[in-house]
Design brief:
It contains eleven helices and two strands, in the order ααααββααααααα. With 239 residues, it is mostly helical. It folds into two domains: 75 residues, Arc Repressor Mutant, subunit A; 153 residues, GntR ligand-binding domain-like (Four Helix Bundle (Hemerythrin (Met), subunit A)). Strand 1 and strand 2 form a beta hairpin.
Amino acid sequence: MKRESVLARRQVRTAYQQVYDAIRDGILSGELAREQRLPPETEIAEQFGVGRATVREALRLLAADGLVRTAKGSGGGSYVTFPTVDHVTGYLERNFELLSIAKDVTFQEFVDARLLIEGYVARQVAARRTDDDLAVLRDTLMTASEAESISDLRQCNANFHSVLIDACGNSLLQPSARAIFAIMSTRVKSTVVPERQAVREHEQIFAAIKAGDPEQAEELMRTHIQSLTPAYQQEWDAD
């Protein structure tokens, strides 16, 4: 019996996927420039020989990928854009959360990822920090006596990590680090994590960064994450 070839078995792209591919290729190749307005849906449909519903589905997928934005009103229409760090962060956060709920990713894997990424981040910032970086980091160091509530303290502690990740300047690490930190933070109640302990440890990390000591900054960050792991684990297991 003659075997079906691999090429014959390959799934044919649907109409909306073909429209998506064509527009995506035009954007990535530079043929369609950033902020360029795409033709109206009716015109795109006519060019590809498809219905408007097919074009709408292709544009929806392009928007989900951060390649197209849709505006309403007198200047409405679809415009070429490109994904931002915030867009990718949101995408990763949603999908990492689904993986954690489905138990395809374990709590320890999240912790290990934070140790690797944020340890490296602390090292890099200590080696490259600017006066502006130090000023912004210092502003996140709210003490327990200055905070009006535990939620204020918790927000400042979260800001410390966010600012540090941004100061690293690595656009590939930022989305992953932000998404992982956000998932672990949202699944932990403010009454569980020892926020005052976190403040003290943040002050130590900041001191190492200010002193320009990469090795000490990395070691303190890893110790900080590990010291809070039992509190995170408690809430994670309960959830």
